Amino acid sequence: MSENDNTTPGKDIGRTRGSAYRSHMPTTTPSVAIIGAGFGGLGAAIELERNGIDSYTIFDRGPGVGGVWRDNTYPGAACDVPSPTYSYSFELESEWSARFGSQAEIKAYLERCAEKYGILSKARFNTEIVAARFDEPTGRWEVEVDGGEKFWFDALICATGQLSRPKIPDLDGLNTFAGDHFHSARWDHSVDLRGKKVAVVGSGASAVQLVPAIVDEVSELHVIQRSPNWVGNKWNHKSNRQVKWLMRNVPSLARLQHNVEWVWYETRVPIIFNQFDPLRGGFHEWLKFKIRREIKDPELRKAVTPNYKVGCNRVLLSNDWYPALDRDHTTVHANAVTKVTPAGLVLDDGTEVEADVIIWCTGFTATEYLAPIDITGRDGRKLHTEWKSGPEAYLGIAVSGYPNLFMIYGPNTGSLTNTIIFLLEKQARYARQAIQRIAQNGGWIDVRQDVQDQFNAEIQRKLAGTVFTSGCPGWYHTDDGKVVAVWPGSHVAYARATGKVDFDSFEHGRPDRARV
Ligand code: NAP
After folding, report:
1. Predicted pLDDT at 229
2. Quick one: which atom of ligand 1 is closest to the CA of 205?
3. What is the distance between the alpha carbons of residues 137 and 53, in angstroms, rounded to a whole number?
4. Is 368 exposed, middle or buried (0-12, 13-18, 19+ CB in 10 A)?
5. Can you give the pLDDT at residue 208?
6. Does domain 174-229+268-360 correspond to CATH entry 3.30.420.40?
């Protein structure tokens, strides 16, 4: 514990300059808790550092930085967005082994960034935040970690990610299975798959990478595909020595590569809008052609062809997924799982699938934003109660009733057409501007409810004209069908909307009790 550690409202662990101060006075160093040390949290910490704010503490329940890139160690784990844009724009990397970096490379990249920007000395790993409560009299947040310890901060940046809590369906008999079973995001490296009968449940982004990576090892592979996904080619050219040398020694080349990839991806935005149906139609035919070219079995071709619009779900990228499904020892079951038995799985058509190992590629609790942190705002408001029928925020960053709380990768900010890292940087910039304002004026800011409501009405109006509301499987919507995960527009539009904090959209408050 540092000497700044304290559990009384007057002090905090993030403030590194100055002595205890009265909270009605302008503060020069607001203390900030950043929750999560993945791409989002680390990016927010770096944004603060680069702007001279070093009074933050970054918490992560895991043992180091990296978030999903630390946790997903399954065979074949890699990015499906080109690494020149799936990296911080201010920290471009010349050493990617290929256009799409592997999990190990991305994790190492994030560790290097944390080291370079001096984040590690302000990080508390293996520390899970379980609750945060806004204390109106002092205008500060009381943050509780697992085990009961409490700290005080002027502001919170919640960067807990959408895909950090694995979801295994709550099936009958789950605990009766006699073999090994685990989620793809919690890979059990002690289990040897060689010569085993393996069942992979799910056919999303993780399964598409994992199945080709294990197909040669196993004796039988069963892929349980409740809904097929559209899968495109992964143009994953490798970087040779000469290219790497050039990238390293001509810095503007890495910038050029970043910009070209970014602009290329941004041109994909129209495919999410219904008015561009003809354009999407061409893409659709191209993806169907890929299925015909890579799969010989007509029944299998039919089974893997989605019946929903291209783009309403993530278009996956793989050159070896379909060939892996078409192998003699692979069986694709176009079914859902209904039950687990000691011997394997029972599917919704009654088929019993025998397995030695079950791998759950069944996704994450993606729409439960910020869970399981118990967040209490002004007047005792509970965020999770208010979000019961779907989370809402302003710009995906601020929530009315929860002052000085800023989210990274909040509701309706998922990136389907370009790189999420761009959006995370814009959110960090926004939070940093707000924190600078708090530093100047003291007190707190709270987005106005009418501003938030108007913003969300507009988001849902835009979504009505996109493929996301055309009825597709996946996790972008709540069980009631409200789309809460994706941003219905271009990345340029998001950058414009978040470029400068409009402080008139916020209520400004002063604590009514001075700190001691
Ligand atoms: P996912 O896309 O949510 O896929 C979950 C799969 O499990 C779906 O196929 C789902 O079917 C299936 N499923 C769920 N419950 C089932 C049941 N009871 N019986 C049968 N099937 C069931 O999960 P994911 O593949 O882990 O990917 C999650 C997200 O992580 C992706 O969307 C992506 O954003 C991210 N990701 C990114 C990368 C990258 O390269 N950047 C790599 C991996 C993952 P339904 O479709 O019918 O629900």
Report:
1. 96
2. 25
3. 25
4. middle
5. 98
6. no
pLDDT confidence of residue 1: 31
Residue identified by tokens 């499904």 is: 325
C-alpha span between 32 and 54 (Å, rounded)? 9
Q: State mean pLDDT over 401-411.
A: 97
User: Region 21-36: what's the mean pLDDT?
Assistant: 69
Protein residue closest via CA to atom 23 of ligand 1: 363
Asked if omega into 26 is within 30° of 0 (cis), the reply is: no
Residue type, 67: G
Rounded to whole angstroms, the Cα distance separating 119 from 65 reads: 10
pLDDT at 244: 86
CA 416 to ligand 1 centroid distance, Å: 15
- Amino acid 483 reads V
Pair 31, 14: CB distance under 8 Å: yes
Place of tokens 């004796």: 219
The CA 313 to ligand 1 mean position distance, Å, reads: 10
CATH number of 3-165+366-509: 3.50.50.60
User: Quick check: 10 and 154 in contact, CB under 8 A?
Assistant: no
For residue 17, the model assigns a pLDDT of 37
Q: Give the 3-state secondary structure of 234-261.
A: CCCCECCHHHHHHHHHCHHHHHHHHHHH
Run of H or E residues at 48: helix 39-50
| Strand order, beta sheet including 140-145 | 150-153, 140-145, 129-135, 374-376
The domain spans of the chain are 3-165+366-509, 174-229+268-360
Atom of ligand 1 nearest to the CA of 360: 7
- Ligand 1, atom 14, lies closest to the CA of 362
CB within 6 Å of ligand 1 — which residues?
Answer: 79-81, 163, 169, 201-207, 224, 226-227, 314, 336-337, 361-364, 473-475
* Sequence-separated (6 or more) residues with CB below 8 Å from residue 273: 465, 466, 467
The letter for the amino acid at 512 is: D
CA 50, 51, 52, 57 torsion-angle sign? negative
Kindly give, in sequence order, each residue whose CB lies less than 8 Å from that of residue 466, ignoring residues fewer than 6 positions away. Answer: 272, 273, 274, 312, 488
